Protein backbone atom coordinates (compact mmCIF):
# COMPACT_ATOMS: atom_id res chain seq x y z
CA UNK A 1 0.00 0.00 0.00
CA UNK A 2 1.43 3.34 -1.03
CA UNK A 3 1.37 6.56 0.99
CA UNK A 4 -1.36 7.96 -1.24
CA UNK A 5 -3.59 4.95 -0.65
CA UNK A 6 -3.05 5.00 3.13
CA UNK A 7 -3.95 8.71 3.42
CA UNK A 8 -7.77 8.22 3.32
CA UNK A 9 -7.46 5.47 5.96
CA UNK A 10 -5.52 7.78 8.28
CA UNK A 11 -8.01 10.62 7.81
CA UNK A 12 -10.89 8.25 8.49
CA UNK A 13 -9.27 7.05 11.71
CA UNK A 14 -8.79 10.61 12.87
CA UNK A 15 -12.44 11.39 12.22
CA UNK A 16 -13.52 8.34 14.21
CA UNK A 17 -11.23 9.33 17.09
CA UNK A 18 -12.62 12.88 17.14
CA UNK A 19 -16.17 11.58 16.96
CA UNK A 20 -15.48 9.22 19.87
CA UNK A 21 -13.99 12.02 21.99
CA UNK A 22 -16.99 14.22 21.22
CA UNK A 23 -19.42 11.49 22.23
CA UNK A 24 -17.50 10.85 25.45
CA UNK A 25 -17.59 14.56 26.30
CA UNK A 26 -21.33 14.72 25.61
CA UNK A 27 -21.95 11.63 27.73
CA UNK A 28 -19.92 13.13 30.59
CA UNK A 29 -21.87 16.40 30.35
CA UNK A 30 -25.15 14.50 30.34
CA UNK A 31 -24.07 12.54 33.41
CA UNK A 32 -23.17 15.74 35.26
CA UNK A 33 -26.54 17.27 34.39
CA UNK A 34 -28.36 14.14 35.55
CA UNK A 35 -26.42 14.12 38.82
CA UNK A 36 -27.21 17.77 39.56
CA UNK A 37 -30.70 17.85 38.11
CA UNK A 38 -32.13 19.41 41.29
CA UNK A 39 -29.74 22.35 41.08
CA UNK A 40 -30.44 22.63 37.36
CA UNK A 41 -34.18 22.76 38.00
CA UNK A 42 -33.73 25.57 40.53
CA UNK A 43 -31.58 27.51 38.08
CA UNK A 44 -34.14 27.21 35.31
CA UNK A 45 -36.88 28.43 37.66
CA UNK A 46 -34.80 31.49 38.58
CA UNK A 47 -34.03 32.18 34.93
CA UNK A 48 -37.73 32.03 34.11
CA UNK A 49 -38.46 34.60 36.83
CA UNK A 50 -35.51 36.87 35.96
CA UNK A 51 -35.68 40.13 34.04
CA UNK A 52 -35.38 39.43 30.33
CA UNK A 53 -33.68 42.74 29.57
CA UNK A 54 -30.90 42.09 32.04
CA UNK A 55 -30.48 38.56 30.70
CA UNK A 56 -29.95 39.96 27.21
CA UNK A 57 -27.38 42.41 28.58
CA UNK A 58 -25.61 39.57 30.36
CA UNK A 59 -25.45 37.54 27.14
CA UNK A 60 -24.07 40.53 25.24
CA UNK A 61 -21.45 41.09 27.96
CA UNK A 62 -20.44 37.42 27.82
CA UNK A 63 -20.08 37.57 24.03
CA UNK A 64 -18.04 40.76 24.42
CA UNK A 65 -15.57 38.93 26.66
CA UNK A 66 -14.93 36.39 23.89
CA UNK A 67 -14.31 39.20 21.40
CA UNK A 68 -11.95 40.95 23.83
CA UNK A 69 -9.95 37.78 24.46
CA UNK A 70 -9.79 37.20 20.71
CA UNK A 71 -8.38 40.73 20.23
CA UNK A 72 -5.85 40.13 23.01
CA UNK A 73 -4.75 36.86 21.39
CA UNK A 74 -4.41 38.56 18.01
CA UNK A 75 -2.33 41.32 19.57
CA UNK A 76 0.08 38.76 21.03
CA UNK A 77 1.09 37.36 17.62
CA UNK A 78 2.36 39.02 14.46
CA UNK A 79 0.44 36.86 11.98
CA UNK A 80 -3.19 37.60 11.18
CA UNK A 81 -5.38 34.85 12.62
CA UNK A 82 -8.75 33.82 11.12
CA UNK A 83 -11.36 35.93 12.89
CA UNK A 84 -14.23 33.48 13.08
CA UNK A 85 -12.09 30.58 14.24
CA UNK A 86 -10.30 32.85 16.71
CA UNK A 87 -13.55 33.89 18.43
CA UNK A 88 -14.77 30.27 18.38
CA UNK A 89 -11.49 29.15 19.95
CA UNK A 90 -11.90 31.70 22.76
CA UNK A 91 -15.42 30.40 23.41
CA UNK A 92 -14.06 26.85 23.59
CA UNK A 93 -11.21 28.02 25.82
CA UNK A 94 -13.68 29.65 28.20
CA UNK A 95 -15.71 26.43 28.37
CA UNK A 96 -12.58 24.36 29.00
CA UNK A 97 -11.49 26.84 31.66
CA UNK A 98 -14.54 25.93 33.77
CA UNK A 99 -13.76 22.21 33.52
CA UNK A 100 -10.03 22.25 34.32
CA UNK A 101 -8.54 24.29 37.15
CA UNK A 102 -5.88 27.02 36.99
CA UNK A 103 -6.61 27.87 33.37
CA UNK A 104 -5.14 24.61 32.04
CA UNK A 105 -8.09 23.96 29.74
CA UNK A 106 -7.98 27.41 28.17
CA UNK A 107 -4.23 27.15 27.65
CA UNK A 108 -4.50 23.77 25.95
CA UNK A 109 -7.26 24.99 23.63
CA UNK A 110 -5.29 28.11 22.66
CA UNK A 111 -2.13 26.08 22.10
CA UNK A 112 -4.03 23.72 19.82
CA UNK A 113 -5.55 26.61 17.90
CA UNK A 114 -2.21 28.38 17.42
CA UNK A 115 -0.61 25.09 16.32
CA UNK A 116 -3.29 24.66 13.65
CA UNK A 117 -2.54 28.22 12.52
CA UNK A 118 1.11 27.30 11.86
CA UNK A 119 2.90 28.85 14.83
CA UNK A 120 5.87 27.15 16.48
CA UNK A 121 5.73 25.91 20.07
CA UNK A 122 8.11 28.61 21.28
CA UNK A 123 6.04 31.39 19.74
CA UNK A 124 2.82 29.87 21.08
CA UNK A 125 4.19 29.83 24.63
CA UNK A 126 5.50 33.37 24.26
CA UNK A 127 2.18 34.73 22.98
CA UNK A 128 0.18 33.03 25.73
CA UNK A 129 2.60 34.28 28.40
CA UNK A 130 2.36 37.81 27.03
CA UNK A 131 -1.43 37.62 26.97
CA UNK A 132 -1.53 36.37 30.56
CA UNK A 133 0.89 39.07 31.76
CA UNK A 134 -1.06 41.89 30.11
CA UNK A 135 -4.31 40.47 31.45
CA UNK A 136 -2.93 40.36 34.97
CA UNK A 137 -1.73 43.97 34.76
CA UNK A 138 -5.09 45.09 33.39
CA UNK A 139 -6.98 43.35 36.20
CA UNK A 140 -4.67 44.81 38.82
CA UNK A 141 -5.02 48.31 37.40
CA UNK A 142 -8.81 47.91 37.22
CA UNK A 143 -8.92 46.75 40.84
CA UNK A 144 -6.88 49.70 42.04
CA UNK A 145 -9.05 52.08 39.98
CA UNK A 146 -12.17 50.65 41.62
CA UNK A 147 -10.58 50.99 45.05
CA UNK A 148 -9.73 54.62 44.37
CA UNK A 149 -13.19 55.35 42.95
CA UNK A 150 -14.99 53.65 45.86
CA UNK A 151 -12.66 53.73 48.87
CA UNK A 152 -15.32 52.64 51.35
CA UNK A 153 -16.47 49.57 49.43
CA UNK A 154 -13.55 47.29 50.27
CA UNK A 155 -11.90 47.60 53.68
CA UNK A 156 -8.23 46.66 53.55
CA UNK A 157 -6.70 45.11 56.62
CA UNK A 158 -4.39 47.30 58.67
CA UNK A 159 -1.78 44.53 58.49
CA UNK A 160 -1.54 44.92 54.72
CA UNK A 161 0.17 48.18 53.78
CA UNK A 162 -1.33 50.06 50.87
CA UNK A 163 2.06 50.02 49.17
CA UNK A 164 1.69 46.27 48.62
CA UNK A 165 -1.43 47.01 46.59
CA UNK A 166 0.06 49.86 44.58
CA UNK A 167 3.48 48.27 44.00
CA UNK A 168 2.33 45.63 41.44
CA UNK A 169 0.42 48.30 39.53
CA UNK A 170 3.43 50.61 39.45
CA UNK A 171 5.68 47.74 38.32
CA UNK A 172 3.26 46.75 35.57
CA UNK A 173 2.96 50.35 34.41
CA UNK A 174 6.75 50.69 34.26
CA UNK A 175 7.11 47.47 32.26
CA UNK A 176 4.34 48.52 29.88
CA UNK A 177 5.89 51.97 29.43
CA UNK A 178 9.29 50.41 28.70
CA UNK A 179 7.76 48.06 26.12
CA UNK A 180 5.88 50.88 24.41
CA UNK A 181 9.02 53.03 24.42
CA UNK A 182 11.02 50.25 22.77
CA UNK A 183 8.40 49.78 20.06
CA UNK A 184 8.28 53.53 19.41
CA UNK A 185 12.05 53.72 19.09
CA UNK A 186 12.02 50.89 16.57
CA UNK A 187 9.30 52.57 14.55
CA UNK A 188 10.53 56.16 14.78
CA UNK A 189 14.30 56.24 15.40
CA UNK A 190 14.24 60.05 15.78
CA UNK A 191 17.29 61.93 17.01
CA UNK A 192 18.70 59.15 19.20
CA UNK A 193 22.36 58.31 18.52
CA UNK A 194 23.07 55.46 16.14
CA UNK A 195 26.34 53.68 15.85
CA UNK A 196 27.49 50.11 15.38
CA UNK A 197 30.36 50.38 17.86
CA UNK A 198 28.30 51.12 20.99
CA UNK A 199 26.00 48.13 20.40
CA UNK A 200 28.86 45.80 19.64
CA UNK A 201 27.53 44.84 16.22
CA UNK A 202 29.90 46.72 13.96
CA UNK A 203 27.42 46.42 11.09
CA UNK A 204 26.78 50.05 10.42
CA UNK A 205 24.25 52.39 11.98
CA UNK A 206 21.74 50.75 14.29
CA UNK A 207 19.58 52.16 17.03
CA UNK A 208 21.59 52.93 20.13
CA UNK A 209 19.67 52.46 23.35
CA UNK A 210 22.07 54.48 25.49
CA UNK A 211 20.81 57.90 26.45
CA UNK A 212 23.91 59.98 25.82
CA UNK A 213 25.30 62.42 23.30
CA UNK A 214 26.68 61.40 19.95
CA UNK A 215 30.14 62.60 20.84
CA UNK A 216 30.39 60.35 23.91
CA UNK A 217 28.69 57.45 22.13
CA UNK A 218 31.09 57.41 19.25
CA UNK A 219 34.31 58.08 21.19
CA UNK A 220 37.07 55.64 20.26
CA UNK A 221 37.93 52.98 22.79
Q: Determine the structural class based on helices, strands and strand pairing.
A: mainly alpha
Total count of strands:
0
| Share of residues in helices | over 70%
Low-confidence segments, given as residue ranges, are 196-221
Strand content: under 5%
As for the number of domains, it is 1
Order of helical and strand elements: HHHHHHHH
- Spatial shape: flat
Head-to-tail CA distance between termini: 69 Å
Rg value: 26 Å
Instruction: Please tally the helical runs, counting DSSP H or I stretches of 4 or more residues.
Output: 8
The biggest sheet, with number of strands, parallel, antiparallel or mixed sense and barrel status, is:
none
What is the residue-mean pLDDT, rounded to a whole number? Answer: 75
Write up this protein.
By secondary structure, the chain is mostly helical. The protein has one domain (12-191). 71% of the residues lie in helices and 0% in strands. It contains 8 helices and no strands. Helix 4 (83-99) packs antiparallel against helix 5 and helix 6 packs across helix 7. The longest helix has 33 residues, at 3-35. Mean pLDDT is 75; it is low at 196-221.
Layout: helices, strands, pairs:
Blueprint: H1 3-35, H2 37-49, H3 52-75, H4 83-99, H5 104-116, H6 121-149, H7 163-187, H8 214-217
Amino acid sequence: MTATESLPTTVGRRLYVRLGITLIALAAAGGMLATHRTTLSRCTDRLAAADGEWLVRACVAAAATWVCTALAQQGAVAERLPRGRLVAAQFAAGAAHHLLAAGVGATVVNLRFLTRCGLSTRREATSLAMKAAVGGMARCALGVALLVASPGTVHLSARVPHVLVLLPVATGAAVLAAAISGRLRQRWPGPWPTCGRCTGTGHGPVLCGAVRSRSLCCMPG
